[in-house]
Amino acid sequence: MAGGSAADLAPTAVVKIFSAGTAGCMADLVTFPLDTAKVRLQVQGESKALPKGQKVAYRGVFGTIITIVRTEGPRNLYNGLLAGLHRQICFSSIRIGLYDTMKQLYAHGAENPGFGARLLAGSTTGAMAVAFAQPTDVVKVRFQAQVHQPDNGSVKRYSSTTQAYRTIARVEGLRGLWKGCLLNITRNAIVNCSELVTYDIIKEQILKNKMMTDNMPCHFTAAFAAGFCTTVVASPVDVVKTRFMNSVPGQYGGGANCALTMLLKEGPSAFYKGFMPSFLRLGSWNIVMFVSYEQIQRAVVRFQRPWESRFRTV
Predict the structure, then answer these.
(1) Which of the four pLDDT bands, split at 50, 70 and 90, describes residue 6?
(2) Nearest to 1 by CA among 231, 302, 293
(3) If we measure between CA atoms, which residue out of 90, 96, 88 comes closest to residue 31?
(4) CA torsion, points 246, 250, 253, 259, in degrees to nearest 10?
(5) DSSP 217-233
(6) Residue 306, number of CB atoms within 10 A of its CB
(7) Which residues contact 224 (CB under 8 A, 6 or more apart)?
C-alpha cells in the first residue's frame, strides 16, 4: 500500500501474504455476527412471498442479531466461522497480500502507479483469490443462511464444516463447491477495486498532503472510507451472489436468472437488502483488517531485522 515509515524496511511479498491472511482472520473474528445478519437479510424472502399480514423474520442488523440470539442461541451468530477462517487464510492472503506485487507488475515498476494499474491489480488478485477459495465461501454462506430451531422441528442443513464440504461434493459434484464462481469473481473484482484502490489512494493523499502521519489514525480513516465506497458499489452483486450460492440445485438458471428473478419478484430494492449490515460489516472489517495488516507487517519486519543482521555478521 501507499506510504510507509522510512524507518521500516519494505516488507516482502511473503510478509504481505502472511500479514493479509492473519489480518483477514482477525477481522472475521470481530465482525462475523454482522456478516451472518447480512446473509440472513439478503436471503430473506427469496423462496416465496410472505402471506398477507405476516411480518418478516428479520428487521435491521441489530434486530436480526437479537432475533437469532433469542430464537437460535448466540452460537448461531458464528455459524460457518471455521469456513470463514478457511476463506480468509486463502482469500485475503491472495487478494490483499499480492496487490502491491501485481500493481508494480502492471505499472512496470513505476514509482507512482497510475489508476489503471491499480484497478487491474485489484481485479486480478480478486479473481485469483475467488478461483482458489470459492468452496470455502459456498460453505460459509450456507452455514450462515441455515436456521436452526429444534423446537420448531427445523433440521440443520449441515452438521459440520467438513461434512458440508463432503456433502456438497457428493450431491452436487465439484461444480457445487464452485457454485457462483463467476458471480463471485465479478463481485470481488468490484470489491477489490473499490476496497484496495480506495484505501490505497486515500492513504496516499492523506500522507502526500501531510494531513496525518503513516499511523493508526490514517489507516483508520482510509479503511472507513474504503468500506463505505465498497458497500455502495458492490452490494447488488453481493446480494445476487449470496442468493445463488445458497440456492438448491435448479432454483435458478444462473446468476443472471437469479438477478432477474429478484428484480421481478421483489423489485430493485432487493439488490440493497442487508445494506446497513453490509456497511457495518465492511466498514468495521476494513478498519480491523487494514489496521491489523499494517501493524502485523511492521511487527514481522522488525522481528526480521535482528535475524538478518545476525546472519550478515556470521
Answers:
(1) very low
(2) 293
(3) 88
(4) -30
(5) HHHHHHHHHHHHHHHHH
(6) 9
(7) 283, 286, 287
Q: Which three cell numbers stand for residue 188?
A: 470481488
SS3 breakdown of the chain: % helix, strand, coil, rounded to 5?
Answer: 75, 0, 25
Which residue, 263, 199, 277, 265, is CA-closest to 231?
A: 277
Inter-helix orientation angle 161-172/115-145, to 10°: 100
CA distance linking residue 156 with residue 177, whole number of Å: 19
Do the beta carbons of residue 124 and residue 193 sit within 8 Å?
no
Give the residue ranges of DSSP H helices in 173-250: 174-177, 181-192, 198-208, 216-246
- Closest by CA to 262, choosing from 284, 246, 286, is 246
What are the backbone angles phi and psi of residue 308, rounded to the nearest 5°? -65, -45
Q: Does 174 have pLDDT greater than 80?
A: yes
Based on DSSP, count helices (H) and strands (E) in the chain, helices before strands: 12, 0
Q: What is the pLDDT of residues 91-132, one digit of tens each?
A: 899 999 999 999 999 999 888 889 999 999 999 998 899 888
**Dihedral sign, Cα of residue 89, residue 90, residue 91, residue 93:** positive
CB 234 within 8 A of CB 283: no
**pLDDT at site 124:** 92
- Is the Cβ–Cβ distance between 243 and 138 less than 8 Å? no
Measure the CA–CA gap between 79 and 144, rounded to whole angstroms: 5
Interior/surface letters 253-289, b for 16+ CB within 10 angstroms, e for the rest = eebeebbebbeeeeeeebbbbbbbbbbbbbbbbbbbb
Count CB-CB contacts under 10 A for residue 104: 16
